[in-house]
Specification:
The complex is a heterodimer of chains A (208) and B (243). Chain A is mostly helical. Chain A has a domain of 141 residues: VKOR domain (de novo design (two linked rop proteins)). Helix content of chain A is 70%, strand content 0%. Chain A has 9 helices and no strands. Chain A is globular. Chain B folds into 2 domains: 62 residues; 167 residues, 3-Layer(aba) Sandwich (Glutaredoxin). In chain B, 58% of the residues lie in helices and 10% in strands. In chain B, strands 1-3-2-4-5 form a 5-stranded mixed sheet. The chains are: A mainly alpha (208), B alpha+beta (243). Chains A and B meet through helix 1, helix 8 and helix 9 of A and helix 1 and helix 8 of B. Chain A: It is found in: Membrane. Chain A: GO terms for molecular function: oxidoreductase activity; quinone binding. Chain A: This is Vitamin K epoxide reductase family protein. Chain A: Keywords: Disulfide bond, Membrane, Oxidoreductase, Quinone, Redox-active center, Transmembrane, Transmembrane helix.
């Protein structure tokens, strides 16, 4: 017994003395997945309901059509709102529900195998690419913002970011990103906010 | 008896663990500090831009004396009322079919209210219309030679020839300029000049700020109106003239 303990202690690599390396963000990830997933789910659900209302009555003014720039109606009526032949929020309802459930499972102490995390990674990678395409479309092609869609943008980015960092843990290249995780996230968000600010500057400048 | 070797190893691993923990804390602290700095820098820059935009001299967005967002000093007036009491401002896109449909109506109103109502035209090319911005540039380039109205008419009268085509219509517009007998060297230069595009974008930015979402959008004495017919339009103008 003693001998084995000594062996174990001596055998630990100096760089990782804390024992078997723990996955990063053990406390953050479960909550992020649960709360982020739930927010995304809520936004996608509201968008789907608004879309149905809009289909039923083309004159319907969605609850988030506030002014010329913040206008769901003009965004929801575009072809970009149903890229795959059906309304985008349907993807969100399915995807965010899964993310929420995964978060809840982690909170309950689940220790998923690697393939589960890779599955989550695949879904979130698709989501983050899609979201950035939608950001581009919204800003530069449609020229309007839809608040519920922006909630989806805002949760998808951190979900993707932290799940990716978790899955890349142990890789040397990912280490600085894991250490300065919130710097990257802040720059990411500020870049999107900056683009929105610049794009709709004439409008924002009339508000002050 | 415990070997001293074992004790040393245990102590070393404890020290290493403590060291790793303090390094982790240091990294965490630095991460938060840098994040806060980045956010603060962003807020400062945005704040500075806002302040400069508000009080800075000659900010592009500032509305100079004697002009408004609706009618700038450089806005094209098709005709001016002697008393300046009633002004109709139209934000238009030369490729928009609805604008083309309103064009004869506006012409009729202009004839009816010549000298009584000011008609102002503002550019509002819509991104999804392939040649709308080109058309606006062609008109603005003609305007530099004092031929705004002629080119404006030409665009709407011939809209079917070039509209909705999704291929560059530069050659067609060049033809119109030639047919109007413009100084072609000057026209070409203005057509390609980034300043021409800026001039158009400035109109569109004013439109966006005023809440213009589509074209044509009409403002009657600063109020957005949506006349569905000539009679409705006429009634609105008559009311403004009487009021």
């Amino acid at each position: 017994m003693r001998l084995s303990r000594a062996e174990a202690a001596a055998g630990l690599p100096a760089a990782a003395p804390a024992g078997p390396r723990e996955a990063p963000f053990p406390r953050l990830l479960p909550w992020l997945l649960t709360i982020g997933g739930a927010l995304g789910l809520l936004a996608a659900f509201v968008l789907a309901v608004e879309k149905i209302a809009l289909l039923r009555n083309p004159d319907y003014v969605p609850s988030c059509s506030i002014n010329p720039v913040l206008s769901c109606g003009s965004v929801m009526a575009t072809p970009q709102a149903e890229v795959f032949g059906f309304p985008n929020p349907l993807l969100g309802i399915a995807g965010f529900a899964m993310v929420t459930a995964a978060g809840a499972a982690l909170l309950a102490g689940a220790r998923p195998r690697r393939w589960f995390w890779l599955g989550l990674q695949a879904g979130l990678t698709f989501a983050v690419v899609f979201v950035h395409w939608l950001i581009y479309q919204s800003l530069y092609v449609i020229g309007a913002l839809c608040p519920y869609c922006m909630v989806v943008w805002a949760v998808t980015i951190p979900l993707f970011w932290y799940v990716t960092l978790r899955n890349l843990a142990g890789s040397r290249a990912a280490r600085p990103f894991a250490e300065y995780h919130s710097v990257v996230l802040a720059v990411w968000f500020l870049a999107v906010i900056g683009l929105i600010g610049v794009r709709f500057w004439p409008y924002w400048s009339t508000l002050i | 008896m415990e070997s001293s070797e074992e004790r040393t190893a245990a102590r070393r691993s404890k020290v290493d663990a403590l060291r790793a923990e303090s390094r982790r804390q240091e990294v965490r602290r630095r991460n938060l500090a840098i994040t806060a700095t980045v956010v603060a820098a962003f807020v400062l820059v945005v704040g500075a831009v806002f302040v400069i935009g508000k009080v800075g001299p000659g900010g592009g967005e500032a509305v100079a004396a004697g002009e408004s967002r609706l009618v700038r000093a450089d806005s094209h007036r098709l005709q001016t009322a002697a008393d300046g009491k009633v002004t109709v401002v139209e934000f238009l896109d030369f490729e928009c079919e609805a604008c083309g449909a309103y064009f004869p109506m506006v012409e009729q109103l202009r004839a009816r209210y010549a000298g009584k109502v000011t008609f102002v035209t503002r550019y509002f090319p819509i991104a999804s219309h392939f040649n709308a911005e080109r058309a606006a540039r062609a008109v603005e380039a003609a305007a530099r030679q004092g031929r705004f109205e002629a080119m404006y008419r030409r665009m709407f009268e011939s809209q079917k020839e070039w509209g909705e085509k999704r291929i560059p219509a530069d050659e067609i517009f060049r033809g119109y300029a030639k047919a109007l007998g413009l100084d072609m060297a000057a026209w070409e230069k203005a057509y390609a000049d980034p300043a021409t595009l800026d001039r158009i974008r400035k109109d569109a930015a004013d439109g966006e700020a005023l809440g213009v979402q589509g074209t044509p959008t009409f403002f009657l004495n600063g109020k957005k109106i949506q006349p569905q017919s000539y009679d409705e339009f006429k009634a609105a103008i008559d009311a403004a003239l009487a009021g």
